[in-house]
Design a protein that fits this description.
Helix content is 44%, strand content 14%. It is of the alpha/beta class and 249 residues long. The protein is globular and about 55 Å long.
């Protein structure tokens, strides 16, 4: 089987903080789960610009391409669709995802799903962390699992007692961006527990992705006949998932 392409998205406005640290642990565990079979990349939203969707609906007539081209949305959208699996690592902001990341999700759903009605059929896993022990982590993970389903993807969590829906952690009320990294280095119990949950989840993500890719290859004729799996089949063939831009040769 060809390499599994995993895109890790650090959805924190802060650079190299707690979300980035946990995401690196997830990708390391994914590589361990399938030695030599993983191609991974981390994309940080820190320093990136995402303009809000203004519901102009022009993307529906532009093959999904948003008319707003003066920001970083297109870059991340194309990486998202090229990947076989996505791992989100998210800080909890006001019981949910940071506003910058929510803007990306709004435009991803509106400009692509509404336009093509095709199932990308990729695996999505979520890690969420906050300063408190129960301050929105599970709610944030549940939201992103619902996003995965809406996008025609498969959400994958960890296992009991680590976390059914995904992996969650807390910084013991510390607000510095190196808090979890330092707590883990100190052997703090909850930080260790979070990292172990992430390792399990990463293994499950790799396994489910292998199953989906193998099954897609075996059932190609059925998927082509039934339709609605163009994104997935193009990815299996290592072809660009997003159609060419209007007017592009």
């Amino acid at each position: 089987m060809e390499k599994i392409r995993i895109l890790g998205i650090s959805a924190s406005p802060r650079k190299n903080g707690n979300s980035h640290f946990l995401l690196k642990k997830a990708l390391e565990a994914a590589e361990t789960a399938a030695r030599g079979m993983i191609s991974s990349e981390i994309y940080s939203i820190s320093g990136k610009t995402f303009n809000p969707c203004d519901a102009c609906n022009q993307c529906h007539d532009r093959l999904g391409y948003c008319r707003q081209t003066d920001d970083d949305f297109g870059e991340l959208r194309d990486k998202w669709f090229a990947a076989d699996a996505i791992i989100y690592s998210v800080p909890v902001y006001h019981m949910g995802v940071p506003g910058q990341f929510k803007i990306f999700l709004d435009r991803l759903g509106n400009s692509v799903v509404d336009s093509f009605v095709s199932r990308p059929l990729k695996v999505i896993g979520t890690i969420a962390q906050g300063s408190g022990i129960s301050t929105g982590q599970e709610q944030t993970i549940a939201f992103l699992n619902s996003h995965a389903i809406m996008m025609g993807c498969i959400p994958v969590g960890s296992e009991w007692p680590a976390g059914y829906l995904g992996s969650g952690g807390w910084t013991r009320v510390r607000v510095d961006k190196k808090a979890l990294q330092e707590l883990y280095a100190e052997g703090e119990e909850d930080a260790n527990f979070t990292v172990e949950a992430i390792k399990i989840q990463a293994k499950f993500i790799v396994q489910m992705t292998q199953i989906i890719k193998s099954g897609g290859a075996q059932q190609r004729e059925m998927l082509e006949k039934d339709g609605g799996y163009d994104f997935f089949l193009r990815r299996l063939d290592n072809k660009p998932v997003i159609p060419k831009k209007p007017g592009q040769a």
